[in-house]
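Need residues for this backbone.
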């Protein structure tokens, strides 16, 4: 190699083999520095469509399951009833009631005020009305709680809930809504109407082939979706897990890392003895050592073992504990982020850093006010919008959720009574209704009662029979200030 290079260089310069090797090494190093391949460490996030949100989220992730299932169960126990609107005056109070119950900063006082407006606006219809029977028993296979739990679950996972209205096919009641049933959101396809602004023209159920469904036969409840495009993506609700797909993947990675550490943590370290000359073992011995390593490190049964090797007595740590990896702290942080996405306090799920027995009731109240009630109100508005025209009751009756059975939203009777006593504008019948008592059929019970607590000093003194010579003398001279 040196001879060839010397010929190329000519007579002016000579190199030996050592110099050639140095030149080659320098050239290689320069090439590597300029063309070094750096493996990509960019995170990989999954696609998060409606099907993935259900199968990879709810069905495969314990955190998502626990949050969504509890929220859906809490919402499903809140029943819906039909109420008669008390004329034009009732319409006015109904608007105020809806504004209070849909407010962002809903407080207990706001709920109290809303319940007053509700009593002025609505009167519950008999349980045997057609609409009440449908709301109580929506189909032959499910009760109301079970059907609405599925609907709320789909809404939380996919951003959409679809209730199919099965109608009477023929006869005098043809077209009347007979049953309601929840459809799987990930198999529902929206057909745009092709107009401006783009709206819904109909639906297709794809689970059993291609089944077309009329627009009026579906009650569609959805979350806000700002992702507009010409294909009508905005017609679908935005799935919470789509926005949280990075946090969701982090949760999966933390779970996988913990499981892998437990299953394949292998030996905690290697004990070696350097006094044994490894060169005598040869290449075959190195291969046997590798086989031994593989055999003794795989599986949970080898977790924490110590592997012995040849050479001077020494110890090298090879495994890391979950505590060293900080998996527990990271998983807790990720779970709290998922709770925020679904608007549920992490303290409801045994997050001991925040949860105590004393404030547990407050966290339940927050869960209802921030997470559950807005979801139920969204369902209520969709039921009113879609069902009342089917029963020819638009403007006459109103479907509303009954929040009175939620213990977390009900203050104790003493607190309620104190609040009512400080609100003289509330009539006795309204007070009775707020305390879940029947109204009394007396006209004076529908008028405000003012508690007399103060009076002028003059009126009090004039009503008293004062026996005092000094006062009598003042009276005789006309100087009593209380009898001017």
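Answer:
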């Amino acid at each position: 190699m040196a001879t060839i290079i010397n010929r190329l260089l000519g007579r002016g310069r000579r190199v030996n083999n050592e110099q050639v090797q140095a030149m080659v090494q320098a050239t290689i190093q320069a090439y590597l520095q300029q063309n070094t391949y750096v493996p990509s460490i960019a995170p990989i996030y999954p696609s998060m469509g409606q099907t993935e949100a259900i199968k990879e989220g709810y069905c495969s992730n314990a955190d998502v399951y626990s949050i969504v299932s509890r929220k859906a169960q809490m919402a499903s126990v809140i029943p819906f009833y039909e109420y008669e609107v008390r004329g034009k005056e009732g319409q006015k109070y109904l608007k105020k009631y809806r504004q209070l119950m849909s407010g962002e900063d809903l407080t207990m006082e706001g709920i109290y005020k809303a319940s007053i407006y509700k009593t002025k606006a609505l009167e519950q219809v008999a349980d045997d009305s057609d609409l009440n029977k449908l709301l109580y028993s929506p189909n032959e296979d499910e009760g109301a709680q079970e059907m609405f739990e599925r609907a709320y679950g789909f809404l939380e996972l996919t951003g959409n809930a679809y209730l199919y209205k099965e109608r009477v096919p023929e006869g005098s009641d043809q077209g009347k809504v007979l049953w309601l049933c929840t459809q799987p959101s990930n198999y529902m396809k929206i057909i745009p109407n092709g107009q401006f602004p783009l709206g819904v023209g109909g639906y297709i159920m794809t689970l059993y082939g291609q089944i077309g469904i009329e627009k009026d036969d579906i009650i569609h409840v959805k979350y806000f979706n700002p992702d507009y495009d010409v294909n009508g993506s905005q017609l679908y609700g935005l799935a919470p897990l789509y926005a949280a797909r990075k946090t969701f993947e982090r949760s999966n990675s933390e779970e996988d890392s913990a499981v892998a550490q437990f299953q394949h943590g292998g030996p905690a370290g290697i004990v070696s003895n350097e006094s044994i000359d490894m060169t005598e073992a040869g290449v075959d011995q190195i291969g046997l050592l590798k086989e031994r390593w593989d055999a003794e490190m795989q599986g949970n049964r080898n977790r924490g073992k110590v592997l012995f090797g040849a050479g001077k007595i020494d110890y090298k740590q090879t495994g890391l504990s979950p505590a060293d990896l900080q998996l527990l702290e990271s998983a807790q942080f990720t779970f709290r982020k998922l709770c925020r996405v679904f608007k549920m306090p992490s303290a409801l799920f045994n997050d001991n850093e925040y949860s105590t027995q004393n404030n547990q009731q407050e966290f339940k109240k927050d869960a209802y006010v921030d997470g559950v009630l807005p979801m139920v109100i969204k369902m209520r508005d969709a039921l009113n919008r879609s069902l009342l025209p089917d029963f020819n009751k638009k403007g006459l009756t109103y479907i509303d959720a009954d929040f009175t059975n939620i213990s977390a939203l009900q203050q104790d009777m003493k607190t309620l009574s104190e609040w009512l006593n400080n609100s003289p504008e509330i009539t006795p019948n309204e007070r009775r209704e707020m305390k879940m008592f029947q109204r009394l059929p007396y006209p004076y019970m529908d008028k405000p009662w003012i508690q007399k607590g103060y009076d002028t000093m003059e009126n009090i003194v004039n009503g008293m029979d004062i026996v005092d010579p000094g006062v009598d003398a003042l009276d005789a001279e006309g100087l009593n200030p209380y009898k001017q």
